[in-house]
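Everyone, study these two lines:
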Amino acid sequence: MEALARTAPEPRISPTVLQRIGRTRLLTLNRILPEGCARILIKDESANPTGSMKDRMALAMIEAAERSGRLKPGGRVVEYTGGSTGVSLALVCAALVYPLSIVTSDAFSLEKRRHMAALGAELTIVPSTAGGMDAALTRGMIAAAQVIAERTGGYWTDQLNNTDQLAAYRRMAGEIWNQTGGRIDAFVQSTGTAASVRGVAEVLRRRKPDIRIVAVEPKESAVLSGGAGGTHRIEGVGAGFVVPLWRPDIADEIIAVSTEEAMAMARRLARADALFAGTSTGANLVAAIELGMRLGPDAVVVTVMCDSGMKYLSTPLYGGQD
């Protein structure tokens, strides 16, 4: 009952910031869409408390660990992260009074690292190669997190293997279905742990079996498409290997988008539709428009604004320096 109370709707006064997680709006894209494109709706996950969709999965993982007894009162939480999951875990752990150890890297934005630290997380930084994300970096962060979990006896949320997060994205799918009134032809989402595209797809397919599900990955590291792993700068996606939560039957199609394409689209989105987002959102929109042009103007495509552009002001995405 306690876990349910944290996420129950509260019309006027919320006893905790955690009640602000979820129930985000769908927004209509306008000027950025080319003529002949499907109607594209974007789920504004930047409205979550940390400005990221990862608030949903962080809360789901912690609540599930509490219920099962894997996480005891006051126990330490440990995770490796490209940043957004770490910030979201830092928020949840601060609200619920759990110490948190985060393994991250200089490959990810300074804003995310400072945000985690501001919320009380203890950071371990794993150096990257020239500021890029690749399989070696992912595996290095995983190994460092495992060492910390073993040394401290902490609960390792282990996001690449943790199925508890799927419940958060199934709830997001329910929101999308209700907000569209079931009028949805396709869903497009970038793939990191694969939990978001998998959780949403499971629910939407049950309600509409012929819906088209499209997964998005970095063109420089298109491993889900059968290519080789490589280095890219689309933060939060593209681990560089096929992640454990991925299943080949999740998506009807995989679209690979380059870092350059994703960044250019995120900048266009800010100028054209006044939506300030990160690189993974840019990748989503590149893929959604490609699909939307094939489906035509009578179709409805839903994609996700994964997080806020405020997380990337120091990065090349918005002209900053590393």
Remarks:
- The mean pLDDT is 94.
- The chain has two domains: 2-47+169-318, 54-156.
